[in-house]
Amino acid sequence: MKKLIIYPLIILFAFGGFAKTKVVTSIFPIADIVSNIVKDKADVKYVIPVNANPHTFEPTPEQAKIIAQADVFIGVSKQFDGWIEKFLKKDAKKYYLQRRPANPHIWLSFIWGNQIISNIKLIFMKLDPKNKKFYTANAIKYSRELSEIHKVYFAKFKSLKTKNVIQYHPAWEYLAKDLKLNIIGTIYTGESKRVSIAHLTSILKIGKKRGADALLCRLNTKDKVIDIYERELKLKRVELDPIGDPKSKDRNSYINLLIYNCEKIYQALNQ
Q1: A GO molecular-function term, please (predicted)?
Q2: Closest listed residue to residue 85, CA positions, set 11, 28, 26
Q3: What pTM was computed for the model?
Q4: Which range marks the domain in which residue 144 is found?
């Protein structure tokens, strides 16, 4: 499992003081994990709106101001949200949850989620050692809840007769491994929508040979390529949410986001 990077910068923190330490993350799921561990001991915010693409997002002046006010930044990886660094104040502390360049969608995984919880716990134990028991207790409780939900869905998916899926974007690699799904093809391997006819044809051939029952894509994805795959392979389009939405009823927390995505995939494959 990957280790977090710690950049030892000097800063005075307000843990236990009058002002709360300001923590910023790029996306909602990471902010929600942090909030479940620190509770009311820090002010936690995220800057990328839930309807925005994290890979291509550029902050507004108001969002840049939120970043500039942060005492602590917790990012996914340098490649994913390292751009936030240029908006941070010089004495802000910064941490990354993924050390090496790799698929950054670590929050979309039960197994990685537990590692994220552990890493964030360690961050705040270092920043605020007087409350290390508090952070440890919260992390243990939260991790157990996540693990129990993983067990439930692991058992449900184990009973499925078919587990072959195609993904539109490589956001679901880790979740597929968690649930022992077989990703037999990925349409777009990056943010660019440029892809060769040979690549698309290859996935179609593999799908026809091995069988594919679902195509995993982001909510409200519009692409004629998906229409072709649905028609040619007679598979189901499964619209998933990679970011969540605190204003929604079923995706308003990190754990609910994972449940939502698991249910969508399970319902599509269990038909």
Answers
A1: metal ion binding
A2: 26
A3: 0.91
A4: 21-150
